[in-house]
Amino acid sequence: MPHFSYHSLYQLAYQVFLAMGCPEADATTAAESLLIADLRGVDSHGVARLAGYVRLWEAGRINPKPNIRVVHQTPSTATLDGDAGLGLVVAPRAMQHAIQKAQQVGTGWVSVCNSNHFGIAGHHAMQALAQDMIGIAMTNASPLVAPTFSVERLLGTNPIAVAIPAHKQPPFVADFATTTAANGKLEILQRQNADAPLGWVQDQHGKPTSNAHALKHGGALLPLGSDREHGSHKGYCLGAIVDILSAVLSGAGYGPWAPPFVSFLPLPANPVGKGLGHFLGAMRIDAFRPAEEFKQHMDNWIQRFRNAQPAEGYERILIPGDPERAAEAERRQRGIPIADSVAEELHQLAKKFSISWE
Amino acid sequence: MPHFSYHSLYQLAYQVFLAMGCPEADATTAAESLLIADLRGVDSHGVARLAGYVRLWEAGRINPKPNIRVVHQTPSTATLDGDAGLGLVVAPRAMQHAIQKAQQVGTGWVSVCNSNHFGIAGHHAMQALAQDMIGIAMTNASPLVAPTFSVERLLGTNPIAVAIPAHKQPPFVADFATTTAANGKLEILQRQNADAPLGWVQDQHGKPTSNAHALKHGGALLPLGSDREHGSHKGYCLGAIVDILSAVLSGAGYGPWAPPFVSFLPLPANPVGKGLGHFLGAMRIDAFRPAEEFKQHMDNWIQRFRNAQPAEGYERILIPGDPERAAEAERRQRGIPIADSVAEELHQLAKKFSISWE
To answer: Considering only CB atoms, which chain B residues are within 8 Å of A230?
Structure first.
């Protein structure tokens, strides 16, 4: 698998966003949002999606020069209309609003409509860390997930990210799809023609299946918990909460009306809202207790969990954010591995936009 | 199994709380908080726990006349010290603060330390509904849950409740432990000497087991997801987030330092904070969009999900809150079924405090 430097991939993404018509500042923000996924090992949400964004733009579903505006607000809240912009640009803007509100009244909460796929949730939540704030980010997404007891795909993988600062320890960064497995993991198995573990997907009748291609034949991803006996109704609740806060609260397309990421699928008929929705939050630590005191207790929390006794066959307990930090350290040094098919796609994008690259 | 009326059980609980020394208003609040669990079918959190609260009071761990006070605040946040009061009283008070803040600046967020077990989370979240607000409630709890890859019990079942108002439809009320199965469900199997499904608990070596008594022998409850392959690291993240927002943010005992509910277990040595912690939130709907508009879209959301096509073998898709509403309708009419052992315990409590009952 070829490796690319952060700089090289960043430059390509930046040039592609410029070629789409994004202003320089937005192209920078979008390229950063995208590349952070590749750095942190979330390959499904990095440059592998660049061609997908371009296709959405070609289909007229992404506005490269959005007028992102506040349509409603209170001292601690705002609703933003993303004007069909790139989620990679809209979400950081919304997070800035949340942080500003938190600076003024302790917390800030921003619901966003009329946006598009925002990349990895963790990146947006982490913007709060440098301000000694807890950051929260969620988004609804293309409907691929069946609620417990159903065969219909009514929810997206609807991720939740929560970033919490510590003192000497690295921050706690949870970032996860509210499904048993993220769609990106299933796509890896599809490319390998490998079986999926039972509990990740169901077939068109709602029966468990190990067929990683089941979604192509009317199957669905399963909510976290896999089945009722193992708590899938809780994963369904989580996905639903993300959908409602991101899309019903903001005026975006919710549930099965969330617009698909892939441009070859039609937009939903009889839309109930505009575009995709996000929900961003920021809470000032010192709105609850002195920040230094909190961060020292977070160090203690992290160390206690890190030092917990491992189960047989395991070396150590991980803190949320550890795997992504390890990936970032390795990839900043050795470069970012890119699948051959993705590398080929990137070369085609460079050619398409006459970008001199690699 | 004997059935009791709401009124009868309420009167007993109210008299017991009065006998513990609670002021009348607090005894009312506590009895209501407790009974709502029995009404809604969450038997493990209702009058079955009354004797446990009494034992904690006898051990000097519950203060019946707490001076619940705000120790820190901003326009949208507050930190409350529950003064070792009943969580059943402290949490509703904290929710009132959250609602008042939301009335003023759009949202309100209250972290609580120095409290005790608060009953069912859903009840506290639902206080926001009548104000056209979204209510959120969480709490940390006695450590019974092992993080992914560990054999140590470092987290509680740490529930999350989110209540969202609708228009003509009943509200969306999610209320769930962040473990695969709540401890109450395991206790039912223990009483029946029945096996637990694999994925609910692990043994002292961290291996899967169907022994419902495994916790007595060094085992642990498992985070939602059951094992790494099925996303238990996500359940671990959720439990950790609840622990941090409820306890690290407020100054309560977090992780393995959370005080146990049972009075026969000693309080943790070298405490890192005071008592148990909760986190309550309220968000005004019209801080984001007009409330009527939102609630009509919630009706549409609920109807679309309720009418989804069921999987083979299932009749219909449930909306979060449906099972509890069905239990409440049935129990208000036919009375509340109480296990013989619990009924016997209640009679002993009545005798102990010279309460004329049944």
So the answer is: 180, 197, 199-200, 225-226, 230
A320 within a domain of the structure (yes/no): no
Q: Which residues of chain B make contact with A234, given a CB cutoff of 8 A?
A: 176-178, 224
Same domain for B35 and B161?
yes
Q: Is the ipTM of this complex over 0.95?
A: yes
Domain count, chain B: 2
pLDDT in tens, chain B (358 residues): 899 999 999 999 999 999 999 999 999 999 999 999 999 999 989 999 999 999 999 999 999 999 999 999 999 999 999 999 999 999 999 999 999 999 999 999 999 999 999 999 999 999 999 999 999 999 999 999 999 999 999 999 999 999 999 999 999 999 999 999 988 889 889 988 999 999 999 999 999 999 999 999 999 999 999 999 999 999 999 999 999 999 999 999 999 999 999 999 999 999 999 999 999 999 999 999 999 999 999 999 999 999 999 999 999 999 999 999 999 999 999 999 999 999 999 999 999 999 999 8
Total residue length of chain B: 358
Query: What is the distance in angstroms between the Cα of B234 and the nearest Cα belonging to chain A?
Result: 7
Does A289 contact B225 at a Cβ distance shorter than 8 Å?
Answer: no
CA distances from B281 to B108, B112, B125, B162, B186 (A): 6, 11, 8, 9, 29
Cβ distance of A297 and B254 shorter than 8 Å = yes
In tens, the pLDDT along A242-253 reads: 999 999 999 999
Domain assignment present for residue B298? The answer is no
Contact check, Cβ <8 Å, B226/A230: yes
- Contact criterion met (CB < 8 Å) for B249 and A202: no
CATH of the domain at A196: 3.30.60.50
Q: Domain for residue A116, yes or no?
A: no
Instruction: Tell me which H or E stretch contains A63.
Output: none
Asked if the Cβ–Cβ distance from B72 to A288 is below 8 Å, we say: yes
Same domain, B14 and B100: yes
Residues of A in contact with B297 (CB under 8 A): 248, 254, 272-273
**What chain A residue is nearest to B200 in terms of C-alpha separation?**
A230
Q: Tell me which chain A residue has its CA closest to the CA of residue B204.
A: A311
Task: Single out the residue in B287, B312, B330 at which a domain terminates.
Answer: B287
How far from the centroid of its chain's Cα atoms is residue A37's Cα?
9
Q: Are strands B172-176 and B201-202 parallel, antiparallel or unpaired?
A: unpaired
Query: Which of B105, B207, B224 is closest, CB to CB, to A76?
Result: B105
Residues contacting A355, CB < 8 A, separation 6+ = A12, A15, A16, A19, A349
Write out the residue range of the structural domain in which residue B214 sits.
181-221
Could you tell me if residue A186 is inside a domain?
yes
The residues with which B77 forms a beta bridge, in sequence order, are: B74, B109
Find the angle CA(A286)-CA(A288)-CA(A293) to the nearest 5 degrees.
60
Q: How far B358 CA lies from chain A's nearest CA (Å)?
A: 38
Do both B202 and B101 map to the same domain?
Answer: no
Residue of A nearest to B179 (CA): A231
B191 & B109 share domain: no
Whether residue B185 is found in the same domain as residue B173: no
Q: What is the CATH number of the domain that holds B171?
A: 3.30.1370.60
